[in-house]
Write a structure and sequence with these properties.
Blueprint (H helix, E strand, L loop, with lengths): L9 E7 L3 E9 L5 E9 L8 H32 L9
Antiparallel strand pairs: 1-2, 2-3
């Protein structure tokens, strides 16, 4: 039987104008560290203005960057604890 011992909350914040959407993703980890990532989306001038679509694209890009940073952090912690270079962590 599995038991949940920790939960993470990811925050996403958006800044928008008529053509650009920027997203910031933040997760606070139980060890007290924070990982922050950014994503952007740009609306083509011929596309209709759909802010939610810009948020989805910029948010997905920020979350993707956040995931890559977390994988890198985990990889570095494995190396540090083992004293050697570990195998790459694949997505």
């Amino acid at each position: 039987m599995m038991h949940t011992t920790v939960g993470w909350h990811v925050e996403l914040e958006f800044m928008e104008d008529d053509q650009h959407t920027r997203a910031v993703a933040l997760v606070r980890l139980p060890d007290g560290s924070e990982v922050r990532a950014h994503g952007r989306a740009t609306r083509h001038r011929t596309d209709s203005n759909q802010p939610r679509v810009g948020e989805e694209i910029a948010g997905a890009r920020a979350l993707n960057e956040l995931a890559m940073q977390l994988l890198t952090k985990a990889h570095e912690e494995i190396d540090q604890a083992s004293g050697r270079t570990s195998q790459p962590i694949h997505v």
